[in-house]
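so im writing up the methods section and need the Metabotropic glutamate receptor 3-like protein record in one place, dumping it here so i stop losing it
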Amino acid sequence: MNALNIEINGDVTIGGIFPVNRKECVANECVTKVNDYGMQRLEAMLFAIEKINRDQLIPGVTFGAKIFDSQTDHKMAITNSLEFAAMKSTGEETSKLIGVVGASLSPVTMKVAKLLQLFSIPMISYASTSPALEDRTRYELFLRTLPSDGFPATIMTEIAKHYNWTYVSVVFSESLMPISSKFVAESRRSGICIAAHEKMSNSNENPFIAKQCETIIFRLMTKGGARGMTVFAFLTEQHFNCLLKASEDLNVSKSLTWIVVFKNVSDVTSNFNYYKGQIIDIEFTREDVKEFDKYFLQNNSKNPWSQLKSTKNYSQDLKVNNVINSVYAFANAYKNAWKSKCNNKPGTCEQLKTMTGEQFFYEFITKVNFTDLNGNNVYFDGNEVRKDYTINQLQKINGFNSFKRIGMFSKNGLLIESDKWINGVPKSVCSMPCAKGAIKLFSAGDTCCWVCVKCKTGEYVNDHNQCVACGLGYKPNHERNGCEKGNHNGEQSESTTSEIAVTKVDTDYKDENCVTEMRKVKCRMSHLEHNLLPLKYEFPSCKYD
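--- predicted struct ---
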């Protein structure tokens, strides 16, 4: 071992790339600091290798490791990859390196995976979630032990369907546009319409970001037709905090319901205890490996950076289990190859040594199926491992806001069972259902917004949304969806035209509290218009609390 890598001898070798250290520079002075999460992930690989060898997964075969510190630098990660390539191209070492575990950041993983596949080296990532890595034509020998960022978009669509939200808005940070686009595509396929689709531009200037947030909140609240506003957000922590603050400053937070994805939403902002709106968060279900906690808190002589790690306020990193499963995926795949090629004879046979990286990947790694240290079944679906997700909701408990688990999404689908809403489940629809005896008049190409047109006296609404007259001796039934015998003589209503009831101003809707609230919102929007464009909009005469 040296200052930049760890090497453990074995009959076969698994490579590893982890961001253990990072450089922080101020002016011309740089210091090296330890990444706590990178340290845990490195130790997780050492833990897995040690446990596999102790349990003698393959008789007569020991697993070794060669692990590099990428120093949170993509250039260093590429240099590490060249070291692995050199191992693969030097005689005896060819049979020893069976694959690489890494890397963390998706852009780094993309570069490393492309380089390694040139030398037929399979790679399994424990943390890279970019949807771009799903492209098998570009990343031929790549897998990962977690889902892509795009998978929560599927969960979000299921949540919208669960609550019958048919008219929603989307806000996304520019860097997360691909994930947002996936949600929009999936929701439209499910019959859900998008009211507003707003982008937060990348910027480091706080005044510009704050102005952007106010403008976006204004657009969300003034988007025509929405009765209640559910916003599906794909945002950085900075942008989400900014939008929450803007909604509070503009006094419209109670009118918004946010559906977000964060790995630990309670760490995202300190404003939740004061926030008046509603938030649902989707996050990975924690899968801590209890046996690893004891291992990590001990001094590990195999790790040259062990003395630098901090155990104060220790909490297991979310990706530790992914690292362990990545190592076990390689090891169990190699065990299956050993069974197939060596007929269960102890040690490595010649057929195993001459197996190519492509053979190992397609015949064994992609088909591996094993039980992890938490008792969960692990296998690759496409090029990733599916995970359970926890659904949390911001609720007031004992007078304080906190996030409470209300359900989960697993291979069995979405389950929500303990949600609580301030005034009932929000309605996020463009138009309310029509009254009896009225048909929906849709705008061209719009399936979510309509106006209601009352049929004439003596007409009913058929299954094709048409007004149809009852014959002589018949009249519309009570539900106005068919005819029944009656004294109707075919006379028409006094009005020669159908009465149009615009759903946006639904006069059948008698809830005075709702009407009052809508007036308040309209007044707030008038003030917001004046604040944003004082030369165009006069100061409103109305007042709001």
